[in-house]
Amino acid sequence: xxxxxxxxxxxxxxxxxxxxxxxxxxxxxxxxxxxxxxxxxxxxxxxxxxxxxxxxxxxxxxxxxxxxxxxxxxxxxxxxxxxxxxxxxxxxxxxxxxxxxxxxxxxxxxxxxxxxxxxxxxxxxxxxxxxxxxxxxxxxxxxxxxxxxxxxxxxxxxxxxxxxxxxxxxxxxxxxxxxxxxxxxxxxxxxxxxxxxxxxxxxxxxxxxxxxxxxxxxxxxxxxxxxxxxxxxxxxxxxxxxxxxxxxxxxxxxxxxxxxxxxxxxxxxxxxxxxxxxxxxxxxxxxxxxxxxxxxxxxxxxxxxxxxxxxxxxxxxxxxxxxxxxxxxxxxxxxxxxxxxxxxxxxxxxxxxxxxxxxxxxxxxxxxxxxxxxxxxxxxxxxxxxxxxxxxxxxxxxxxxxxxxxxxxxxxxx
Length: 414
What we know:
By secondary structure, the protein is mainly α. It has one domain: MFS general substrate transporter like domains (Growth Hormone, Chain: A). α13 runs parallel beside α15. The chain starts with a helix and ends with a helix.
């Protein structure tokens, strides 16, 4: 492990994980603020669902559009400069959410601006990963980066619930704004470079290993392919639908868990910390396990499909039982199984997109799946989880996604 940490590409992955951790906290802070906002503004349950869906959905709408529209521009500047710019912007707009919160329209606008500022984050991170890591290492490299998501979801209740409960929900926004400016930005400046040949302190052996991996992959890629032609290839279109379904599930369910426990289960806000964090306690183990197995046996899509199938069953049981321990156990199992897809999603996209079109194509994939899945997820899951009727639809989406991943595995064998 010490040897790996001295290698520049793995340092890069760890720094990108930190930026994902802070950025994702900025993204989901609204889910923990929402119960307190409802009390402060005197919202009814219907109004809480309405404004909550708007605050979450507007972010993902802007986030998705920025992925699509801004990724080609960010690609011209390179990952390093683009990441530094967007960290400054999203820190500003996170703080803005606290400053203008007394005006609901300005609060909604701050979420739109935050979504735009985070839009090219994933395309630039995955571009850097495709450049820096050989194909055989990418599931593990990407799993380190996306571990930032699970760390954020796991630690957010422990960090934000006590702080927001004690000092108000605006304090959580301001803390995260400071973390972006004081933690993420200096790390990017020090450790992130667009390519190994631009790094001032990389060993000859590591540079040669990365270069050899890029040469092997370039021999199999079709260079000069028009971007629009990628969107008509069956395997890209299939994975595009899979990505939408994944966001419907992951964003929709995660966004409403705090409100589910406070409104549906009647648990006081101060006591939901463990309940929200518990389902994600094993997610980091899951990401490490599935990515290692996927890289070792070259079965990333197969593992993701099996995970989605099992998670669909677990979620159905969780949302149709009165036993709180069963809810926690099943949600924990579901998140553990979902992480099989999260561990390999970016590696699977990197496998089918050529380098010369990667950033705009990745922006289209990540942006559109977030726009559709993230925009519709909270709105779709709100009545299903909140009213407790039709919860079978959530499991049906998971099982359909599992079937599509099995087909995808047969197509790419990766």
